[in-house]
Amino acid sequence: MKRQKLVLAAVAGLVAGVGAGAQSPAAKPENVQCWGVNSCGGQAKCSVTTEDLAAVKKLMGDAEYQKKFGKSEVHSCSGKAKCGGTMGVLNWMELPGDVCKARGGLLLEGKPGARVARKA
Description:
Number of domains: 1
Order of helices and strands: HEHHEHEE
Oligomer: single chain
Radius of gyration: 24 Å
Shape: globular
Helix content: 25-40%
């Protein structure tokens, strides 16, 4: 009787292990547009609008924005993006959300006319 319980427990453990291995791997983190963390134009993505700049300025306040992103300008392509956060220019790059948060990035949400920035 005791031996039968041990055998059943072993079989149950094997079945559970096989079932666990059949599950799909953990989902890959979703990328976000992470603003203010890129280093140079080669990493920056296209399109920074007046509304994007205004949303970040509103979140940070004028003095902090000028100190960190004061050289920012509107552009429509990464070739014009120059260097990013380390050089005083606001741009964005695609990163997993947790990486964006760890690097102190910002997220911009909303449609044109209603852009809002928040910390990642």
